[in-house]
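Pipeline run #58 for the internal structure catalog. This entry was flagged by the ingest filter as a single-chain record with no existing model, so it goes straight to prediction. Upstream metadata was stripped on purpose; only the residue string is passed forward. Reviewer on rotation: M.T. Logging verbosity set to normal.
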Amino acid sequence: MTDRIPVSLSDEDIAAVRSWVIHEDASVIAFNKPSGLSSQGGRIKAHTLDDLLWAFARSNGKRPDLIHRLDRDTSGVILAAKTKPAAGFLGKALQAKKLSKTYLALVAAAPEPREGLIDAALLRQEIGRESYMRVVAPDTPGAQLSQSRYRTLAATEEGALIELSPLTGRMHQLRVHMAHIGRPLAGDQRYGGALTLAGRAAPRLMLHAATLTFPHPDGGRVTVEAPLPADFVALKAAAGL
């Protein structure tokens, strides 16, 4: 579907991206993206998921296009369109907020109250070559209204498993909102998260896009679920969750 210059991929690259497929039909393809892989762009000189989509190029040179992004260190479900009509349909659905996303995260302790709505405007800032978001007053010039729901699924003295649902789609939204209520995500160095949990190192940002529900171009709604990666499962178990 894209007319860009094809990217040369190794057999290992192709096998890897194909192994991440968790849903595929004539119009869409969904992946369980690993942590550490950029969705698109970025300064790191390595293949992105967008590059790896050339593994699915058709004989006419067209290939799928990503519909949305995940942070590089966030794992989980991400969706691509296989045809131009599907891309247009899903792009409009995304703008109309018809895609519903649920994330799982690990934090050092359960928030109080155990569930609720975080309504906190965010402002993007550039510090050196890095982009950050911070909570600001809603009337701050450039502020973006942002809302996230959270729910504690399990908690022990060692940590808590939190379900997160973004109602808006701002950069780093869930990470900043959880830090704002005093519960930064484990492994989130940028926003103050602890680098250990339950006496073990948090190997990366412990945030996983678990489910995505979207209106399908061919009708109805589809829910895709991405299984938890091994590092998340291990740290969750270490905390007794």
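catalog note: The chain has a mean pLDDT of 94.
catalog note: The chain has five helices and 14 strands.
status: ready for reviewer M.T.
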